[in-house]
């Protein structure tokens, strides 16, 4: 298959997989897809799929750099990465965390794109709250206290109620 044909086949595979999954997608330029995946712990995850000359690159923002407990936070993410399929947690120059993966264009099929998007959803949902607890516990406690003192809704913080009961 020529490079153009491989590129076109990968682009078609992504289009098909996203349509079959019923996901929202934006295509800002040829070969670039911004896919929105609804989740539970993290309500919405955005995934960039970029078809390059030789490979598909996947990038998904996970969370910003932690406020505290940096060593444990990043060590824990690296340990999670050891068992992940097709991607790993990575940090940019300021410490913000992403999921990143790369796949040769010849391996891009609708089934493989579906598998990768499913992995992003799984890794995000399974790790998001635990990551926030490790890197943002003080901020979560402060937000909980501020909301409860003012009678504001704490629904989206319920997963962290146990933190509000612990001293800092």
Q: State the major sheet.
A: 6 strands, antiparallel
Low-confidence stretches: none
Number of strands: 6
Number of helices: 4
Helical proportion, percent range: 40-55%
The secondary structure category is: alpha+beta
Query: What is the approximate shape?
Result: elongated
What oligomeric state is this?
Answer: single chain
Structure summary:
The protein has helices at 3-21, 70-81, 110-150, 161-165; strands at 24-29, 32-38, 44-51, 55-63, 88-91, 97-104.
Structural account:
The protein has 168 residues and is an alpha+beta fold. 46% of the residues lie in helices and 25% in strands. It has 4 helices and 6 strands. It has helices at residues 3-21, 70-81, 110-150, 161-165, and strands at 24-29, 32-38, 44-51, 55-63, 88-91, 97-104. The chain has a 6-stranded antiparallel β-sheet. α1 (3-21) packs across α3 (110-150) and α2 (70-81) packs antiparallel against α3 (110-150). The N and C termini lie far apart (59 Å).
């Amino acid at each position: 298959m020529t490079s153009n044909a491989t590129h076109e086949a990968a682009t078609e595979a992504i289009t098909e997989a996203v349509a079959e999954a019923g996901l929202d997608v934006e295509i800002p330029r040829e070969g670039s897809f911004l896919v929105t995946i609804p989740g539970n712990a993290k309500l919405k995850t955005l995934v960039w799929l970029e078809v390059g000359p030789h490979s598909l690159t996947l990038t998904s923002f996970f969370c910003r750099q932690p406020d505290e407990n940096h060593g444990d936070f990043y060590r824990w993410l690296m340990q999670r990465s050891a068992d992940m399929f097709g991607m790993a947690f990575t940090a940019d120059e300021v410490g913000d965390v992403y999921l990143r993966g790369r796949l040769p264009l010849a391996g891009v099929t609708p089934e493989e794109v579906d598998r990768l998007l499913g992995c992003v959803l799984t890794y995000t949902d399974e790790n998001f709250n635990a990551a926030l607890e490790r890197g943002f516990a003080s901020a979560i406690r402060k937000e909980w206290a501020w909301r409860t003192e003012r009678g504001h809704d704490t629904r989206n913080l319920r997963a962290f109620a146990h933190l509000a009961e612990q001293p800092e």
